[in-house]
Structures are given as structure tokens and as C-alpha cells.
Amino acid sequence: MENENVEHLSEEAIEDRLKEIKGKIPSFLIEELKRNLNGKGVTDTQIDRIVGRITDMYRMRQERLDSSVEAVKDIAIIKDELSALKRDMVVLKGGVENVLSDLRILVFPDIDIESIITETVAGAAEDTDAKSDDEPMADVVAGAADAAAAVLPLIEEAITEAEAG
Length: 165
Description:
This protein is an all-alpha fold. The protein contains five helices and no strands.
């Protein structure tokens, strides 16, 4: 029950109280409060609670908005950093592609290296049959062919991995 001794604020008193919070909350909220409070018969204590709650709610929303703005700024910075990383990766990819191209040139992937080595070794072996004093040279060539045959799959694997990476 409401105490009959409690004094209700006049429209002028309500307006004076709302002027006190000017600058703490936007003026459109103050105008909305004024329209809604006039004629309601509010007391000094009630207006204090109402204004306090509205001010707190506005402050909390403003803080959330400020933190959201900061988050958006952070996201923009991260986006810029990611864009720079992407540009760097494109440049790096181009460098890797150039190295792979140079590697392909070095190992002649379009030429069947194994066949060339085999033919060369076979030809060298035929030459050594004719010249018995060149026997150690045939062993060197045959050894080179075996070494090249062993290394070729490793080179091809490295090229495949580099292209996939």
C-alpha cells in the first residue's frame, strides 16, 4: 500500500530530475522517459530507481557496443594481416614454382633418363668388349647407371611432394 504522506513529483520536478542525467544517456531516451513519467504520480525514490536502471542499462549496452567496435577493429587488423600473408604465400608459391621449373630442367622430366642411361651403358659395354683395356671404364659407367636409376625415383618423389605442397 502506498503511504499517503509520500509526495508525488510534479511534471516540472520530473523534468528537473531528468535534466540531471543529461549527457549520461542520449536525449531521445530522456524525452521518452519524460513522456512516460508525466502523469504517473511517481515519487522521488521511484524516479531514482527508474533513472538508475535506465542509466545502468544504457551504460552496459554502450560498453557492449564499445567492445563490439573494438572486436570489429581487431577483425579488420587480422583481415589485413591475413591478406598480407596471402600475398606473401602467392609470392612464395611463385618462387617454389620457379624452383620446381628449374629442377625439372635439371632432371629433364620429359626425357626418359633411364632409357638414355641404359642405352649409354649398353653402348659402353659393347665398346668395352672391343677394347679389353677399358674394362674399368665400363664398371664406372654401369655403376653410374645404377646410381642414377636409384636416385631418379627420389627426385620424382621430391617433385611430386613439392607440387602437392
